[in-house]
Amino acid sequence: MTVLRTEPTLWGFPLKWVSLVTLVVQNSALALVMSYSRHKRDPSQPAYLVSTAVVMSEFIKLAVCVAVYARDEAAIGRLSMQTFLTDMFGRDSHWKKMTVPAVLYFVQNNLQYVAVQYLDPATFQVTYQMKILTTALFSVMLLNRTLSRTKWISLIMLTFGIAIVQMDGKKTESGVGGMEKLLGLAAVTVACILSGLAGVWFEKVLKGTQASLFLRNMQLCLFSLIPGLFFGVFMMDGTAVQEDGFFQGYTAWTWGAILCQAIGGLIVALVVKYADNILKGFATSLSIILSSIASFFLFDFRLTFLFTIGSSVVLYATHLYGRHCECSSNIMNGM
Ligand code: C5P
Question: Reduced to 3 states, what is the DSSP secondary structure of residue 84?
Fold first, then answer.
């Protein structure tokens, strides 16, 4: 039976497509702007502290979510500190479950900066596609989802494609050594595992509750801010912050990277709400092509035979995975 629904729009365009196109642009920009922020700086100045950048990004997301929440609650005459606190911590016990993805995302967001430090943007992005694989595996394990044979094949292809890109060795690197590349690869691999687990966990909590996306994201940001401030800024970088300040080494590119990460987080949430995780995978694949082209011009990045073959396999695998969509991933169905 077909159920007709009116699609939400922004300035007349379906929000689903607005959020996806924005994700493509944001994802391409993220890897490049992050790389620029780490590499293109005045060597006489200290590098900015990643811990502070991650905290700032969570803070911006939290501010946006609070503003949207306040607007929505004010519209129905329900806005008060009491209802805010009840919504955040009192209505159900699900808020406690949000601490898990919050901490996972906190670590993942830090690792992204480590990865772009040691890998060129294009290699980072192709390797980061491994999160499709980890998300699928965690969906099978935690959500008891089953995957068709084609999906498994496309996941194996994806892994091969990423391996081919890695075999490319020094040819595609922008001047980083073997050990540093290994560090970058380790960072991106762990980030993929955390991304998969955090995403599936978030999905599981959302499906089982009625709370709005912005409320859940407020909880996510708040619970990421706590370890971000305590472990990141205070414990890891406390001395540096005391000596040279919280915003040491900040440039326009740092603010660009922070904004990109913040906007990205909000778009990921919207894409999951108005489109689905599969389409999200497509959007990020498209952004690989965009950032490879941009890396070619901006970072002296040479498109080699192996890189081209490997990325094509990754893109085809993503396409195959999306085409045989069981569409069970529209996680907002339960909201
Ligand atoms: O897709 P991926 O795992 O890379 O997206 C993760 C990014 O999106 C992280 O930066 C995370 O903090 C952010 N995010 C968010 N809100 C969500 C889901 C993810 O801010 N609901």
Answer: helix
Percent of the chain whose pLDDT exceeds 70: 87
Domain edges within the chain = 14-38+46-322
Ligand 1 pocket mutation pick from 55, 105, 276 by most atoms within 8 angstroms of CB: 105
5 vs 208: which has the higher pLDDT: 208
pTM of the model: 0.84
Strands 9-10 and 13-14: antiparallel
| pLDDT tens digits, 299-316 | 766 778 888 898 888 888
Q: Cβ(202) to ligand 1 under 6 A?
A: yes
Could you tell me where the DSSP H helices lie in the chain?
15-39, 50-75, 81-85, 94-97, 99-118, 121-128, 130-142, 149-167, 178-207, 213-227, 238-244, 252-274, 277-298, 305-323
What is the position in ligand 1's atom list of the atom closest to the CA of 264? Answer: 8
